[in-house]
Task: structure prediction
Amino acid sequence: MRQSKATIMSVNHAQRVDLEVVADLIPPQSRVLDVGSGDGLLLELLQATKQVDGRGMELSQRGVNECVARGLSVIQGDADKDLKFYPDKGFDFVVLSQTLQATRNPKLVLDELLRIGNHAIVSFPNFGHWRVRLSLFVEGRMPVTKDLPYSWYDTPNIHFCTIRDFVNLCEELGATVEKATALDANGQKIGLSMPWWFWNFFGQQAVFLLRR
Amino acid sequence: MVALRTKRTNNEADEPSSPVLRFGADKPLKLDAGTLLSPFQIAYKTYGTLNDARSNAILVCHALTGDQHVASTNPVTGKPGWWEVLIGPGKIIDTSRFFVICSNVIGGCLGSTGPASTNPATGKPYGLDLPIITIRDMVRAQLMLVDHFGIEKLFSVLGGSMGGMQVLQWASSYPERVFSALPIATGARHSSQNIAFHEVGRQAVMADPDWHGGKYFEQGKRPEKGLAVARMAAHITYLSEAALHRKFGRNLQDREALTFGFDADFQIESYLRHQGMTFVDRFDANSYLYMTRAMDYFDLAADHGGRLADAFAGTKTRFCLVSFTSDWLFPTEESRSVVHALNAAGASVSFVEIETDRGHDAFLLDEPELFAAINGFIASAARARGLSA
Result:
């Protein structure tokens, strides 16, 4: 039991290398809504380093209660259902980090992010990464990796996409990509000069700054 | 014994054992019913010290049958204050740091003008001659008390149930006077089911022959049986089926077997009877009618063209709402609709739902998760307000 909890913690930590990339995109004193704020790590980072007016929405009640106990402004809510209550352009930045693939209707959610925020920042695991492709190609099995540790039947991640897929969706929604970053397996940024196919192959995670 | 109690209740209504602020003819209270209440008085308690900047004041709003004795011994029951688990020196709401104000609501029976108070026009208790009081009337009176202390902006307003309604009303009516708001186990309106339960309670009071059309003091009587039944019915709604079963099950009361009669065979019956009996010792029946009516009439969205978000338009107040999973009087959905309205208004809002089987009354109990949420919210609001720890 202890063992498995520790494993989950370290996996979560490994997934959060995108947080600093996200934080770098946000200027001080911005109004920020973090959708899927989890344990509140990003909000705390942003409040400490950027003095933002930060709000969070998180699905897990336990995560919410812990955030509020730590003084963060967080509500329990579902990205699929509850974004509609926010007014147009109510925030400078709306962040959706590592959550898009777990939503029921990613297209609608992304549309809502672009409506609510002057900018949207979306980070997600790239299903086009070579390890994922290898797993499917060689083993013929759904990939289970360090960053995506779930089996196909118990994963909360129901809508995976590749970096390419995501760029297509942005075009469909009329969103402008202001900035995009791909992170390799070590959390290092992949060089800007590299072509899309290279990012799509070697990027384990992607962080997009969008507006509409 | 009855006469003695009657006298005592009446005294507490006119000459409370807590401080009282009296407003003469020059300062009437404007009521939603369309009339002015004058003269009138507000009984209150304070704890702690108001700082020089007058920025550390917290207003606590009490629930249906609560009173101003939030953090000190109740003069009528001799029991600890109703929120002493939360408020006091070194507690979550630390009275060595904050100036805590709690007043008896208008329409109450412990020193603020209510149906048990003496009507100066007749020299007799108001009874039903008192106009209907609303949540907004209560808050208007509280504002006059806050003005009396010279407090420009309350650091926080908090309360549960009917107290939570007052918190929402404060935040809506006087957003610039409320830095942070903590409405707990409440809603922006009273549901049809809640009005139904209140109506049962009122009918029980009014069906008691000792009620005398509300003029029982003049007859030297009190509708104790009716009020006790009202309390018994209401008390069930403050708990949950799971909690009742956990505490009482089908256990028998001081007996080995069923008696085949209508005595209190079951522990739950005995418990409820006790709740009813002790309640009538401390509460005025007419005041119970007025309090329940005030809650029934509360509908914040209706006051803003049906759009709850408009009740909070442009608000700068920081909100934290709390609900409990087993509360069927004010279910989580009621809080959630307030949260959605606050989101739509662009407000800063936290919302915590706490898992417990203790029902609506959980807000008055020792609930560590509730305290953790209040603590985190108050601490971060205090930082934002520049209040030193």
Summary: The domain at 195-292 of chain B is CATH 1.10.1740.110 (Rna Polymerase Sigma Factor; Chain: A). Residues 368-385 of chain B form the longest helix (18 residues). Chain B touches chain A at residues 318, 320, 339-341, 343-346, 348-355, 369, 372-373, 375-377, 379-380, 383 (CB under 8 Å).
